[in-house]
């Protein structure tokens, strides 16, 4: 009879642990998924901002006799612009390249309608994402225009502001959902742990009544919480990156290439899983340690 009771208790304990691990894994999977979406949304936002280019034009007056001198001057200006703080990437566009681009855009294959070197050479500049901010764009343009040799700087500031505002709005929504999922993770994991500790409330109180110290009672529960949190985090992360690998392989894009961000995401998920599990275990156990025996029947 005692053996059957022990077996029943072991099965119930095993079932309880499995339920807690699955709950932790599912919650952390959703939390990690929101983290991946947030990371990639930020990267994609930066990529779009880098496509909003600024054009810095050299002087239009051009004399073929001074071509070597002008080419040297433009090369020096190009190098200087590449070193400017707001500049992410710069591309030099010669007069010949500008003429070819104009022909292509107008669908013209002949040189009959174009004079030689009708368009000035220029530099196409992609700004760093932080300088696409409407509050900083004017400052970036002034820095570029101040470079000797640059006659004019043009950009579609209205488009930049609209894109920046829309991307910022989207990122705020994603960040908001991520915080919401973090709160849900805390609540759901806490509830799962509380139910598990609730089933052991009589064991906790019995140990306390026979003289066991609170620290001694807490220790095995904390160790178990760390193990359950780690296992749940590991399962959640394996499911997360398995799904993410399948998704990226299907669309043919690896999205974020910076492995450091994946590393910090893994640490965050592991940290959240273990921290919430341990904290919930301590709080729930401490509650029964402070309660009276009669309260155990009404908790």
H/E topology pattern: HEHEHEHEHHHH
Number of helices: 8
When the domains are counted, the total is 2
Instruction: Enumerate the strands of the largest sheet in spatial order, edge to edge or round the barrel.
Output: 2-3-1-4
Function: Required for cell division and gliding motility.
Subcellular location: Cell inner membrane; Cell membrane
Domain ABC3 transporter permease C-terminal: 177-292
Membrane topology: Multi-pass membrane protein
How does this model look, in words?
By secondary structure, the protein is α+β, with helices and mostly antiparallel strands. It is 70% helix and 8% strand. The chain has a four-stranded antiparallel beta sheet with strand order 2-3-1-4. The longest helix has 49 residues, at 2-50. The model has no long low-confidence stretch (mean pLDDT 77). This is Cell division protein FtsX. Residues 177-292 form the ABC3 transporter permease C-terminal domain. Residues 74-153 form the FtsX extracellular domain. It is a multi-pass membrane protein.
Short description:
The protein has 299 residues and is α+β, with helices and mostly antiparallel strands. Helix content is 70%, strand content 8%.
């Amino acid at each position: 009879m005692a053996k059957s009771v022990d077996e029943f208790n072991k099965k119930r304990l095993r079932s309880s642990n499995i339920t807690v691990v699955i709950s932790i894994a599912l919650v952390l999977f959703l939390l990690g998924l929101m983290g991946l979406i947030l990371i990639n949304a930020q990267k994609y936002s930066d990529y779009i901002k880098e496509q909003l280019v600024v054009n810095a034009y050299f002087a239009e007056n051009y004399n073929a006799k001074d071509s070597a001198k002008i080419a040297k001057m433009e090369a020096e200006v190009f190098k200087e612009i590449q070193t400017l703080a707001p500049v992410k990437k710069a591309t030099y566009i010669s007069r010949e390249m500008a003429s070819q681009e104009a022909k292509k855009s107008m669908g013209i294959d002949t040189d009959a309608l174009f004079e030689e070197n009708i368009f000035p050479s220029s530099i196409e500049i992609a700004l760093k994402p932080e300088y696409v901010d409407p509050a900083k764009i004017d400052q970036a343009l002034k820095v570029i225009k101040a470079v000797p040799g640059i006659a004019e700087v043009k950009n579609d500031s209205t488009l930049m502001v609209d894109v920046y505002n829309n991307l910022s709005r989207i990122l705020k929504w994603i960040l908001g959902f991520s915080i919401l999922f973090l709160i849900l993770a805390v609540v759901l994991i806490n509830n799962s742990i509380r139910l598990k500790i609730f089933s052991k409330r009589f064991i906790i109180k019995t140990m306390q009544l026979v003289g066991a110290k609170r620290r001694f009672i807490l220790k095995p529960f904390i160790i178990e919480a760390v193990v359950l949190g780690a296992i749940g985090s590991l399962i959640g992360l394996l499911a997360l990156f398995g799904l993410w690998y399948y998704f990226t392989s299907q669309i043919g894009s690896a999205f974020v290439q910076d492995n450091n961000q994946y590393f910090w995401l893994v640490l965050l998920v592991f940290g959240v899983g273990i921290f919430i599990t341990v904290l919930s275990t301590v709080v729930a156990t401490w509650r029964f340690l402070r309660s009276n025996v009669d309260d155990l029947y009404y908790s």
